[in-house]
Amino acid sequence: MRSWLKDxxxxxxxxxxxxxLYRSELPSCLEDAYTAxxxxxxxxxxxxxxxxxxxxxxxxxLHQQQSLMLEGFERLDLMSHLSRTQALLIYxxxxxxxxxxxxxxxxxAAFSTLDQWCQEMRDAALTEAPRLYETLGQLRSxxxxxxxxxxxxxVWQAWILSESLRRTWMxxxxxxxxxxDKTNGWPGCSGFLMFTTRQxxxxxxxxxxxxxxxxxxxxxxxxxxxxxxxxxxxxxAEIDSFTNQLLSILLSPEDMTRWATRTAQxxx
Length: 268
Fold this sequence. Notes:
The chain is an all-alpha fold. 63% of the residues lie in helices and 2% in strands.
């Protein structure tokens, strides 16, 4: 989790915030989360108390802003649902990795709101699904991949948004799984979804390269509840960092080592 935070602070993207998702404009809630995160990563013993107060204030402000929007009957679009959920996830991860009892308690206290926002994000995504599927369906057209540019970019952007939604949903679920009291089960964001696991697609530098890779190789679209099934027909090198990290949470180090050893022997 700490590496996810550091990647976003240093590179502007990580395994659930795509490099090109907010390229034109970073939502204000994520601007606040980013500045709070960079302050946290740069804190010293002398500034620690001040930085933690900043994080508490920013997280409280996020809650307040969303409450005011709801009171004003303002309807959120899909990007707003995604960005606020990602912002709250960032604050929650900071608090969970901090190690202090107070921050850990504040992080766990945010679970109910994170769960609610995650569910609302998913509901909004289901409403938008026909439009996204229509755009993604252009991949079946011979016009895509021929260098036209505009159509390729539209398909790529639709995939970036839909994959970002899926990854954020899964990381919220994973956070609950790791940190929530297992005797009470873990709340919300339950169920399963399909997501892309092929190495290189999330990291593709542009639309043309993404389209070419999708057409050249199976994108390995996988059900989240059947991740271990990937190990039957693929090697760790074929799977992206996000999926490998999820597998490392679900499986033991011994299972991961056996998988790598077995596929190396087969390929060798």
